[in-house]
Design brief:
Immunoglobulin-like, 4 helices, alpha+beta, 213 residues, 10 strands
Length: 213
Amino acid sequence: MILTRGRRAARRFAGSLSLAVLLVIALAVPAYAAILATLSSPYGRPGDEIVLTTSDFGNHNAYSDLASNAPQPMYLIGLADYDRMLAQYGQHTCGIRGQTRLGLLKWKDDVGSLTFTIPDLAKGDYFFLIDVDGGAYPSCWRMGGAVGNGALTLTVGDQAASRPSAEPPQVSSSPRPTTSGVGSIPTLVLFGVVTLTLVVLLGLALFGRLRHP
């Protein structure tokens, strides 16, 4: 009876260990990098002028690699076209059909900015894509919103663009960009340690049950 319970416990532990390994592997997949930015207005009509400005929240070296390169092309893409792009290419891809080029993101003192006029687009929400090039892979990134979480989004509709606000932006938890890599090694190590700790605790619990059936 004890031997049978021991085998069952060993199988359960092996299954838990396999699950933990798969979790660590899944966490190792890098997420898309993001350049954080704000808009002078998150909405507007075709023909309205919008100013996009990158945000580094005091970390003045956050975009130093990007600022040292040539100005980067920027694009608008609707949500439906965005989903089709991911389905077809499996990653962000700049300059393809369904995107509207806005101009070049230009840098001064590690701050990037782009002033553009909203094109004649259908009403709806649009994401911003930027072709960073410079050795990054993939070289096409989606811009992150500096206020709150998620992607930087422009809503095109009947409401006129608002004037820039004097209020400072809130800190976002969106990932910081680098041109050398997209994944976060410290985050991976942290999740790996937590996962392995849970596996060890599970093993000790099963061992205790085996000793005291």
